[in-house]
Amino acid sequence: MNKTILTLLAVVLLFNCSTAQKVAETQAIDKTQVKASMIKALEWQEAHPIIAIAPTDWTNGAYYTGVARAHKTTKDMMYMAALKNQGYWNKWQTFSRLHHADDVAISYSYLYIDMTDSRRNFVDLEPTKKFLDAHLYEDDIWKRGTRKNEMGQTILWWWCDALFMAPPVLNLYAKHTKQPKYLDEMHKFYMQTYNQLYDEEEQLFARDMRYVWKGSDKDKKEANGKKIFWSRGNGWVFGGLALILDDMPQDYKHRPFYEKLYKELAAKMLEIQPEDGLWRTSLLCPESYNHGEVSGSGFHTFALAWGINNGLLPKKHIPAVKKAWNALAGCQHEDGRVGWVQNIGASPEPASKDSWQNFGTGAFLMAGSEILKLN
To answer: I want to staple 282 with a disulfide (CB 3.0 to 4.6 A). Which of 19, 42, 117, 348 is the partner?
Structure first.
């Protein structure tokens, strides 16, 4: 192979490994630049709010969880100002569907403010308590198990995304109020979802029962014949798991289960990480949409970096996490907007340079918050 061909191959590898993203090298992380990129993302998102259902919906819940994690690491008051403003204008409310895990995700930010800020009686946690008590203890059609359909809506948290939305809030509420009963209830419902959707062979979560193989010719498959595992869906679980472990008591009786699950998901994500650092929307069929996607990748990066920072993963995996962050940073526009975010959905779909959502910004901020702690 002559020198010209080798040079051309090098150019291809450096600049064309996906449709529009450069290969991310495992170069040293400039933490000053990481902080600047995070603030630019915050400022752009605050100036361009996007509401799926309401200001208290799950999309804002995920975004402001990222803002909370960014403040926890940096202590930059820009983040706290954004947190306080949205909580005040929301009147500390959840969204309205008390049986739906999505609608309490916003309370993670309320709890964080109340636990962190010195102003007493600023946060009103009564709406959060009302939601959690109804969610856990009141009857609903899903808990009854009578709503039988292909999605498997016979348990409270029947879709894997729910494991990001409600469990970290319950866990944090239990810690903040010193009421471990909420943590025990969280574990009960978490196990239902785990037992229904976790694929022990692949060590990934199906989004819902439509994607769980039942051994028939109706099983949904990717073009390559493999099972369908959605990157952001597993990112919801993996990122949520890191949030849970971060606040779960070290001596909690069920903590070993969550640590074991964390390590299994981490091993899988590291095994299937693409060469350019960003995970594809379809984890086992990356060729379906052969470009990186930021929301799933942001949650994976956050969780992996969190594991290294907290001793659950060895430091030998730092290069993989750096590669992921460098690739994420390459998806941020000059004005701060975070692109390459798959739109709202429930299965693998494409993204583009110009596609963005607030939860993608939240994932980006979560990833940066742990990247800043890497040594």
So the answer is: 348
Question: From CA 114, how far away is CA 118, in angstroms rounded?
Answer: 8
Q: Taking a C-beta distance cutoff of 8 angstroms, is the pair 262, 242 a contact?
A: yes
Residue 68: how many CA atoms within 13 Å on its side-chain side? Answer: 26
Q: How does 96-129 read in b/e, with b if 16+ C-beta sit within 10 Å?
A: eebebbbbbbbbbbbbbbbeeeeeeeebebebbe
Q: Which residues are catalytic?
A: 161
Q: What burial letters (b/e) apply to 222-234, b meaning 16+ CB within 10 Å?
A: beeeebbbbbbbb
Report which of 314, 239, 277 is spatially closest to residue 29, judged by C-alpha positions: 277
Conformational region of residue 223, where left means phi above 0, alpha means psi within -120 to 50, and beta covers everything else = alpha
Give residue for tokens 């292909």: 150
Compute the distance between CA of residue 337 and CA of residue 349 in angstroms, rounded to an integer.
Answer: 20
Residue 282: what residue type? S
Instruction: Indicate the pTM of the whole model.
Output: 0.94
Q: Are 277 and 300 within 8 A, CB to CB?
A: no
Cα dihedral across residues 321, 326, 331, 337: positive or negative = positive
Tokens representing 123 are 């946060």
